[in-house]
Amino acid sequence: QVRLVESGGGLVQAGDSLRLSCAPSDRILSTHTMAWFRRAPGKEREFVAATSSSGGNTYYRNSVKGRFTISGDHAKNAVYLQMSSLKPEDTAVYYCAADRGGWRGTYGDYAGRLFDYWGQGTQVTVSS
Q: 106-115, pLDDT tens digit by residue?
């Protein structure tokens, strides 16, 4: 089975930057769509960002556009979520996910059902 391990979460101040990493147990970046989701306490899971297997396509939720960047590094077999200008509302547990299906074009908060593999999550807390 494919395992995804996230890292890089932590406690930061509003306006700071943070980079999350996702390390798959297998080399799946070339065959899977990779994405990040997040879930805050008491709230439903939210889609954050996704990138196609080729890295040529990306999609973001509106609230993170211009602030977050998803990318993959095939040589390092890792996926990243570079977050800048962090806001308190970004506070959540962030999850890495992989979908063996093709690029869907657009993704929303209910897209989690499309993903086959999930990481354990990493906590991101942004203070005011």
A: 999 999 999 9
Across residues 26-47, what is the average pLDDT? Answer: 96
Contact (Cβ atoms closer than 8 angstroms) between residue 102 and residue 44:
no
Across the range 20-49, mean pLDDT stands at: 97
Q: Which of 7, 4, 114, 9 is nearest to 59 (CA)?
A: 114
Query: Residue 12 in contact with residue 125, Cβ under 8 Å?
Result: yes
SS3 38: strand
In b/e form, how buried is each residue of 5-37, taking b as 16+ CB within 10 angstroms? ebebbeebeeeeebebbbebeeebbeebbbbbb
User: How far is 128 from 112, CA to CA, in rounded Å?
Assistant: 29
